[in-house]
């Protein structure tokens, strides 16, 4: 009987560190790029507010629904950092100045929003049609709380503080986003529930 030496335990961590770093960071990096692409895809102006309709909330929702909370937070933090250092990754090709403008609160809110979604959603259970429907409903709830309620709360409060426009006026002027963000939440919940099969 021949003895086949196995890989030494002590050597493994040093060899696998770069692999572990790549494994932990490729998804956050991909979602940060997707956030930029969502901004670059274009914007729809909403009368009465300087904040446009964009696809960013869809990506924030997908990040929260598909990544562990630390990775979802890292994805948004990387995106915000890219804009803060001057890369034109925000809506309309804006960068640093957007973080002190009327859309700043929404951008800042993407971070707690994505983390909140990841913490609320739980694990998808696709073992039966009923279980899958319940999972999709929980994903939808998480997307609405984190991607709409949390993002809007930060957006409205900071926009009102920066512009001096009363909070109720800011909130009323922003109602044009609600229908689109509700549709994005449904799309994100259904897509993420289906895609959760891939993570198994
Ligand atoms: O300047 C930016 O890049 C941020 C734009 C923020 C747009 C907000 S996010 C929530 C709401 N839903 C939208 O579609 N647009 C606004």
From TrEMBL:
Membrane association type: Multi-pass membrane protein
InterPro entries assigned: BioY
GO cellular component, one term: plasma membrane
Pfam families: BioY
Keyword Transmembrane: yes
MF terms in GO: biotin transmembrane transporter activity
Transmembrane segments: 21-39, 51-69, 76-93, 99-119, 139-158, 170-195
Keywords, comma-separated and alphabetical: Cell membrane, Membrane, Transmembrane, Transmembrane helix, Transport
Keyword Membrane appears in the UniProt entry: yes
Family: Belongs to the BioY family.
Protein name: Biotin transporter
UniProt organism field: Bifidobacterium oedipodis
């Amino acid at each position: 009987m021949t003895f086949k030496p196995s890989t030494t335990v002590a050597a493994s961590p040093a060899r696998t560190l770069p692999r572990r770093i790549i494994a932990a960071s490729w998804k956050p990096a991909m979602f940060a790029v997707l956030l930029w692409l969502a901004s670059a895809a274009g914007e729809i102006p909403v009368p009465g507010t300087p904040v446009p309709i964009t696809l960013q909330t869809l990506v924030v929702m997908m990040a929260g629904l598909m990544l562990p909370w630390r990775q979802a937070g890292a994805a948004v933090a990387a995106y915000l950092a890219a804009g803060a250092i001057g890369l034109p990754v925000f809506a309309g090709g804006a960068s640093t100045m957007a973080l002190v403008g009327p859309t700043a609160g929404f951008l800042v809110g993407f971070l707690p929003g994505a983390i909140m979604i990841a913490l609320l959603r739980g694990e998808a259970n696709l073992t039966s049609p009923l279980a899958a429907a319940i999972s999709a409903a929980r994903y939808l709830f998480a997307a609405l709380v984190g991607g709409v309620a949390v993002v809007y709360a930060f957006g409205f409060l900071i926009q009102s503080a920066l512009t001096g426009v009363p909070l109720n006026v800011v909130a009323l002027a922003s109602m044009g986003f609600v229908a689109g963000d509700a549709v994005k939440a449904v799309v994100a919940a259904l897509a993420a529930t289906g895609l959760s099969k891939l993570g198994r």
